[in-house]
């Protein structure tokens, strides 16, 4: 069927095309079906929606992803991609072959799967899991879908945290420690999805974080390290497309986590990787048993991928640093690099960096690199290379001007500091979109407090956001005070 | 956030709304998230896509499903529906409670799930199945979501076929047989999705098929029976919404089939139901073992739903009638009602009708009702009640004028008549959109044929469609001729 295509500015993540209902019927195409679109000898795939008014008969509206495919085109109904049959096989708990997994990854990468099929892919992995062999094939297929950085150095260090813990901003501390020891560490990080700040959001307080793969390489060649946003470099680009389908379902199956993490590391050219697995209530991993299993799976998959890895299992029940939100976390980072800062954040950074040194067989001492100021100098060097101000001081980093202090209200002991509610209060206050918004914690679990002791301060850039955050906190009681001799958390 | 909503004519099946990227970021809403839209004290739920041009900042484009929600609105980010947690639980193979299933069905009915979540629902059922208890809850929840017809008669008969077999047009024959015996049979049928004709498409050759539930009731009160399109009456409307997500994945999990079928029957007020389960290569059910299991599951679920059911397992390896496509099947139907017609179609209709009589404890004889002309009179009565011409004769029903006869090409025996390819040839010829398009089979499996014997005729209303169908047939060889003593189907 010959149609005339024009662009319509809707940024659907999938290559949606809109057909007049009569043309769709003529083609035998239903909502969510795929059509092949030929123009100038090239073929594109579109996913169908229908209309009776927005597009006239004989017309075809193409959304942003296919925005360049305009003018006269020839369309036909496309068969289902073979990868859908592989997804169905996985739903029925069959083991997938290397080629099957390559087809699935290829079709996800090319946006050939519609949202129902993507949901089924994630569901199949969640329901039936992936064997170590399948996980390895998935890692390799995801790595192959993007760019890959080659380095002249033999040892390339890297670090990843499974996440879910507020204020766990060890990366901008570990990277300069490791780089200061002369070890190459090309670190990519994420922006917040459901948290009040990702590492990339915090780093963005100091400097640029969006770079191409080539720019990232230049920064690392110059300084040994970087902390850039993973979304701008083209390393394992399929990952984001899969995460988009995991988010609505709030699932994060272990095999997929491992393939996502390791494919990013392989793509960055890294070969010595430390994986931090914090566990605790409301963290991504909720028990020590599950953390140990995940660590073992990581180890077994990495064995066949020429990756040296070390997994650390750490406590993730409560926030690590004091600040939560981009600016407040950036202040903690600078404080630790300056030899002070929140103790938990300092200790965890030192411990992980030392394990990474050990893995890389490098003779260096993280505490010494911190206390000598070498790590701070290296950090300023990296900030400068990423286009930021190398002379930034803590007082230059201003949290939001609207503040609310939450006090204990009674004498007692801090029973729980809930990651999840603390994060949500910070989000309501405007983080990460308003970088100065967030929370500064003045207590940790088991602290003794008096009635008028301050538990935490909420910061916001907008008054209305502060109100929203305070109202929410009143509802959920993110920090709970109890009697010192009370065994009970709550009575319901 | 206050926005001004306007309608945009895109007929997405889900209630998609399009926000400017900046407003979406401000709300913290990503693609596929839900927002609450308040207008005049009422609240609606929309599923988010973003744009930078189609909608200005401060604006909100609502697609057809929410087309009435225009003007000033207040929007906020909506939490994930609780049903998503139930779907996740099912993915992890937990048994769902009655209330969980009710929430899922309610949210699907209200279009509160996005396509990724719908895909996960179908996947969870496919991967982990439904217990008989879950299937019963699902049937009841699906029934409750739509209208329900009450009858004054005690015995209400009904019939369903699991499908997948070409030319299996027994319904327009069985309904008048049963109605002629004085038994009420309010039959709803589907239009074709991937086949060349559904029962509703064939019946539409004779009369109207789109009626409201009230109109359907009136027709049945007048004639004892009807054959109307299930898509126009509001009986178990959730079914179509689930089927939309099953289609892309080509899955049809048994528990979902049972709930779909039985909820339609419960909604129609039926209490004596015959379920035909044809099995064979390319039919929906592919083995005798699977057919028996499905029959047993039907029986166990129906037991707790006050439904008397009988399941028949029939052969579905090759087409039943001679005609495939709306007009060609309508001609077969009229021929059988007239006492002649394709033998397989006549015998199957009689057998199923007699079993239904037995189930209803009615003393009647299907063959006698056919041969006496009582069924034909009843059929004409129903056609008239549905607004068609009661005096229609076979010659009034004209298949497409463009024809192509396929001959055997060699002496031999008919090895296979492939349902799936025969159906696809008929679809390429234009069925069901062009009612006169389709196929008339002149052979059945195991027939001896000579080289110039006609195997089947392809009919089309448009020459281009005929060419397309013939080309496709040359590729797939829908009917295969072999040597009489040949054990082999194919050598590869």
From TrEMBL, chains A, B:
| Transmembrane segments annotated in the record for this chain | none
The protein's matches in InterPro entries, at most eight in alphabetical order, are given as: AMP_phosphorylase (IPR017713), Glycosyl_Trfase_fam3 (IPR000312), Glycosyl_Trfase_fam3_N_dom (IPR017459), Glycosyl_Trfase_fam3_N_dom_sf (IPR036320), Nuc_phospho_transferase (IPR035902), PYNP-like_C_sf (IPR036566), PYNP_C (IPR013102), Thymidine/AMP_Pase (IPR013466)
Cite the Gene3D superfamilies for this sequence. 1.20.970.50, 2.40.40.20, Nucleoside phosphorylase/phosphoribosyltransferase catalytic domain, Pyrimidine nucleoside phosphorylase-like, C-terminal domain
Q: Which SMART domains does the entry link to?
A: PYNP_C
> Known EC number(s)?
2.4.2.57
* Pfam name, any one: Glycos_transf_3
> What residues does the Pyrimidine nucleoside phosphorylase C-terminal domain cover?
413-480
Question: Is Iron among this UniProt entry's keywords?
Answer: no
Q: Which UniProt keywords apply?
A: Glycosyltransferase, Transferase
Entry annotated with the keyword Flavoprotein: no
Question: Could you give a GO molecular-function term held by this entry?
Answer: pentosyltransferase activity
According to its UniProt record, this protein's enzyme class is transferase
Q: List the PANTHER family.
A: THYMIDINE PHOSPHORYLASE (PTHR10515)
Fetch the NCBIfam families from UniProt.
Answer: AMP_phos (TIGR03327), ARCH_P_rylase (TIGR02645), PRK04350.1 (NF003338)
Q: What is this protein called?
A: AMP phosphorylase
């Amino acid at each position: 069927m010959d149609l005339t295509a024009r662009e319509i500015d809707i940024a659907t993540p999938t290559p949606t095309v809109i057909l007049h209902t009569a043309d769709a019927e003529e083609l035998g195409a239903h909502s969510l079906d795929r059509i092949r679109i030929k123009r100038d000898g090239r073929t594109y795939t579109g996913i169908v929606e229908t209309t009776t008014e927005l597009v006239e008969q004989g017309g075809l509206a193409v959304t942003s992803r296919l925005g360049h495919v305009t003018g006269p085109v020839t369309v036909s109904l496309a068969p289902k991609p073979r990868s859908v049959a592989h997804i169905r096989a996985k739903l029925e708990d069959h083991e997938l072959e290397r080629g099957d997994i390559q087809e699935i990854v290829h079709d996800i990468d090319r946006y050939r799967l519609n949202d129902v099929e993507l949901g089924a892919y994630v569901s199949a992995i969640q329901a039936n899991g992936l064997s170590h062999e399948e996980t390895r094939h998935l890692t390799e297929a995801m790595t192959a879908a993007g760019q890959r950085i080659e380095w002249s150095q033999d040892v390339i260090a890297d670090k990843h945290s499974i996440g879910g813990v507020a204020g766990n901003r060890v990366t901008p501390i570990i990277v300069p420690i490791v780089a200061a020891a002369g070890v190459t560490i090309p670190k990519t990080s994420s922006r917040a999805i459901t948290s009040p700040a990702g590492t990339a959001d915090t780093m963005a307080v100091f400097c640029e974080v969006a770079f191409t793969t080539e720019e990232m390489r230049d920064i690392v060649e110059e300084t040994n390290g970087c902390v850039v946003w993973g979304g701008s470099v083209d390393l394992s680009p399929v990952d984001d497309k899969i995460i988009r389908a995991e988010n609505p379902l709030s699932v994060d199956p272990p095999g997929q986590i491992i393939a996502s993490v390791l494919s990013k590391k392989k793509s960055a050219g890294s070969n010595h990787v430390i994986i931090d697995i914090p566990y605790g209530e409301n963290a991504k991993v909720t028990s020590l048993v599950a953390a140990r299993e995940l660590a073992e799976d990581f180890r077994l998959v990495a064995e066949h991928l020429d990756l040296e890895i070390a997994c650390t299992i750490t406590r993730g029940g409560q926030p690590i640093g004091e600040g939560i939100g981009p600016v407040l976390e950036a202040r903690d980072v600078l404080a630790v690099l300056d030899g002070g800062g929140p103790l938990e954040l300092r200790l965890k950074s030192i411990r992980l960096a030392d394990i990474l040194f050990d893995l890389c067989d490098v003779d260096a001492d993280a505490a010494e690199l911190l206390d000598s100021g070498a790590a701070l100098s290296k950090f300023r060097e990296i900030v400068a290379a990423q286009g930021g101000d190398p002379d930034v001081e803590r007082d230059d980093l201003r949290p939001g001007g609207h503040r609310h202090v939450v006090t204990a209200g009674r004498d007692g002991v801090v029973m729980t500091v809930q990651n999840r509610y603390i994060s949500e209060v910070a989000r309501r206050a405007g983080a990460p979109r308003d970088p100065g918004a967030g929370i500064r914690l003045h207590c940790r679990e088991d602290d003794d407090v008096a009635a008028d002791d301050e538990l935490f301060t909420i910061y916001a850039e907008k008054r209305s956001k502060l109100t929203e955050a305070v109202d929410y906190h009143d509802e959920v009681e993110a920090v709970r005070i109890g009697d010192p001799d009370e065994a009970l958390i709550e009575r319901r």
